[in-house]
Structures are given as structure tokens and as C-alpha cells.
Write a structure and sequence with these properties.
Layout (H helix, E strand, L loop, with lengths): L17 E5 L5 H14 L20 E6 L10 E9 L9 E8 L8 H15 L4 E7 L3 H9 L3 E12 L2 E11 L7
Parallel strand pairs: 4-5
Antiparallel strand pairs: 1-2, 2-3, 3-4, 5-7, 6-7
Length: 184
């Protein structure tokens, strides 16, 4: 497991050429590396346990952004990923999903999160989902802004509901309906 460090985050870096596609088996190790850094070192997620793999099936896809060097793209080039997950296990919530978007720390600020979230929204609509929810730690301003730019609206705050890295975190819930993009 990589140690937590405060290396530059690449803010303002250009995305360069990237391809957005469905995650493949060969991508799972890189997805896990990006995820596990966030789990162990940041409050970008409220999860506290690292994972070896991230597996989803339709209607809950995992997508990746892979960088292209000289037109060649390989699994080692995964620079961001996103996923749709069931919001609740109860059947009444079957068409409501929760999104996750993670960008490799050295590639943030390059527009990759926006590419991933746009594609997740497109796929969610194509799969017949009605609503997407995002649960974002309230101090994660970058993610709150990203979701707002993509038509998500705050619908609530869970005050001090998540304990991680030695402190309590508020969690902001944002929502986007897919029929017209508005929350009423």
C-alpha cells in the first residue's frame, strides 16, 4: 500500500488525450490503487477499508479514463475512474443510483472528473435510471463544485455522520434527476 503524502496534485494540468471506456479486468489493479489512496489518506470517501478489486455489472457500470501516448492505450494508463452503485438494496430504489468519481492525485484539475461524471450521467440515463445521488464529504469542495456543474443540487446534509481519520465529517447529499435534470 502506498504511503500517504502531500505531493502536488497536478492542479491545472492538462488532460491530454484520454479515452473513456468501460473498465476491463486488466484495469482493476490501477482502479484499486487510486481508490485505496483515497480510502487510507483522504476524506474524499467515507469508506475506511481498502479493496483489491472494484467489480460492478450492468446496470451499475465502472468506467475509466485512460491516457493515450502515441496512440497506444494500456491498462497501466488508468488516470481516473467512476462507477454507479445501487443507492439502497430495497426494490423501491432500483432506479436510483449513487455515483463515485475518483481521479489519480497527480492528474487532478485536468477535467478528468468532468469527463467521467458526464459519461456516468449519460450511461445512467441509457440504463433507465431515474435519479443519481452523490454523497460527498462537506469539505470536499472540488467534488461539490463538479457535481453542481453537472446539474446536481444539494438535498441535505448528514451532520457529523462519518468518523474517519480521527474526526467527524458532515456528508452533503446532492441529487440529479435524469428526466429533466432538476430536483424539485
Amino acid at each position: 500500500m502506498r504511503a500517504c503524502s502531500r505531493s502536488p496534485d497536478g492542479s491545472g494540468a492538462r488532460a491530454g488525450r484520454v479515452e473513456i471506456r468501460a473498465a476491463r479486468e486488466a484495469d482493476l489493479a490501477q482502479i484499486a490503487a487510486i481508490w485505496n489512496h483515497e480510502v487510507l489518506c483522504t476524506d474524499a470517501t467515507t469508506d475506511t477499508e481498502p479493496r483489491d478489486e472494484a467489480r460492478h455489472t450492468e446496470p451499475y457500470p465502472v468506467i475509466v479514463a485512460v491516457s493515450a501516448a502515441d496512440g497506444a492505450v494500456s491498462a497501466a494508463d488508468v488516470v481516473a475512474y467512476g462507477a454507479l452503485s445501487p443507492y439502497q438494496p430495497r426494490p423501491a430504489f432500483a432506479r436510483t443510483v449513487e455515483d463515485s468519481v475518483y481521479v489519480e492525485r497527480g492528474r487532478r484539475g485536468a477535467g478528468l472528473g468532468s469527463l467521467i461524471l458526464s459519461e456516468l450521467i449519460r450511461r445512467a440515463g441509457g440504463l433507465g435510471h431515474h435519479s443519481i445521488l452523490a454523497r460527498i464529504t462537506a469539505k470536499n469542495v472540488a467534488s461539490l463544485r463538479l457535481h453542481a456543474r453537472h446539474g446536481f443540487h444539494p438535498v441535505g446534509v448528514e451532520h457529523q455522520s462519518a468518523f474517519k481519520l480521527g474526526r467527524w465529517h458532515d456528508v452533503t447529499i446532492m441529487q440529479r434527476r435524469l428526466d429533466d435534470g432538476r430536483v424539485r
